[in-house]
Amino acid sequence: MTTNPKTDSKTSLDAYWMPFTANRQFKQAPRMLARAEGMYFWTPEGRKVLDGIAGLWCVNAGHASPKIVQAIQAQAAEMDFAPPFNMGHPKAFELAERLVEILPAGVNKVFYTNSGSESVETALKMAIAYHRARGDGARTRLIGRERGYHGVNFGGISVGGIVANRKMFGTLLAGVDHIRHTHDPARNAFTRGVPEYGAEFADDLERLVALHDASTIAAVIVEPVAGSTGVVLPPKGYLERLRAICDRHGILLIFDEVITGFGRLGSPFAATHFGVTPDLMTVAKGLTNGAVPMGAVFAKQHIHDTFMNGPEHLIEFFHGYTYSAHPLACAAALGALDTYVESGLLTRGAQMAPYLEDALHALKGLPHVIDIRNIGLVGGIELAPIDGQPGKRAFDVFLKCWERGVLIRTTGDTIALSPPLIIEKSHIDEIVGTIADVLRQAA
């Protein structure tokens, strides 16, 4: 039971089965959040907590951003819902046009979903259906990457490569294979920014082409920067090499930009940051600043046009969701885009990245720190695991930082940081300084 400070009543924690949470541990010592604004959360007791992870890689413009709040309030009063099948509403079309303005050249079609997981499912289906629509229906195989994270639906965990997300759910989708990951601590430990070594890891796709034949492969999906596996960066030249191999064999390239989209790397998207344009891009999180659930798939013109055949009264792509282009989500996304553009947040990460980089790499030499990785406003601090208890050392650091008023995220034994893009140097000092103090005392 926990006390609700507004009603002074008791609220049971029993009914809620929490996602991606150690439920038993949490309910013994709950970590509750009651309010948020700017860079901070507040607990029900009024304790202030600095947000080092932008909620969950999503609150890029900070919490309770005024334009977004006002947009949601106004839309809720005007129209709460509009059916998305065979009907439309103005904000859905306005938002799509606004998004295309900041996308890489040639990526100019927007299909709405409600989350990153749904965006991935949509992109995978779109890729397979595209090949069939152009008369190449044998291309059904999907290629993911070891240690990849692409959401939690069946398609996403099938192309994903994180063991814990896969092992309990049976045989998953057929016709899926994986290229190797790009993590190479032996050559790249403590690299500042994109690592020097490992572009050749993209050539592992050629191994799968030789095994399965390119004529059976529909698409390859990768995160340009992998987050949930512990902040793993693409080596210099890797994405370019992957793009070239896909082009050579007629394979679609999908970038999962759910965490990298909307300014996280100091550019609007990872595709623009690295100068590599995929055929399909998946986004969510920062699309609405996390205020209303929403995702999208961005597609190149020729992919969209391939579906536009047959009688005009027939549906071209049998896919979508009840809440696709939800009016409140579209309003939130338009408010978020206004905020990003007016405040320069789509590129502000490039200005703040050097300061975060220096702060993070100053942790080298502290107890248990075995690697530090960074790009834009993303940081990863990898810790040596406790023998026989993987993940516990980082989780203990997470708990102690929480007690000291700083919210971080851990994945395995890596501390992951992805603060709101409005972060100031003083916030970086507090976040990294707290982690340093905790590490000095860590067992």
- The whole-number mean of residue pLDDT values reads 96
Low-confidence stretches: 5-9
> What is the strand content?
15-25%
Rg (CA only) = 22 Å
Major beta sheet, strand line-up: 6-12-11-10-9-7-8
Tell me, what's the shape? globular
How far is it from the N-terminal to the C-terminal residue, by CA? 31 Å
User: Residue share in helices?
Assistant: 25-40%
Count the E strands: 17
Count of DSSP-assigned helices: 16
Note the main sheet.
7 strands, mixed
Structural class: alpha/beta
Q: Can you describe this structure?
A:
This protein has 443 residues and is of the alpha/beta class. The chain has 16 helices and 17 strands. It has helices spanning 23-28, 54-57, 66-78, 90-102, 116-133, 154-159, 163-166, 185-188, 204-212, 238-249, 270-274, 301-307, 327-343, 345-361, 392-403, 425-441, and strands spanning 2-4, 9-11, 35-37, 40-42, 48-51, 107-113, 141-145, 176-179, 217-222, 252-256, 280-283, 295-300, 369-375, 378-383, 406-407, 409-411, 414-417. The strands form 4 sheets. The chain has a 7-stranded mixed sheet, sandwiched between helices. A 4-stranded mixed sheet has the order 3-4-5-15. Strand 3 and strand 4 (40-42) form a beta hairpin. Helix 3 packs antiparallel against helix 13, helix 4 runs parallel beside helix 13 (327-343) and helix 5 packs across helix 12. The longest helix has 18 residues, at 116-133. The two termini are 31 Å apart. Mean pLDDT is 96; it is low at 5-9.
